[in-house]
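#structure-requests
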Amino acid sequence: MIDAAQMRAARGLLNWTQRELAERSGASVATIKNVEAAVRDTRGSTLRAIQEAFEAAGVVFMEPGDMRTGGKGVRLKD
């Protein structure tokens, strides 16, 4: 499941506003803001919808140790 930092990074990669992510994922703008600010826990189904919206646009989320190939990516070290 993605976290707040991954959401912000993915939006940056796609140059999406919070509003655009909300529209593409079916979540509200308030929910996007709260998740990115880590204000409260969010339903798993909402996080899945957000992740699916990013993946549909071409974002690949990698887990620690993931060595898949296929082009450039972005990732933070632990």
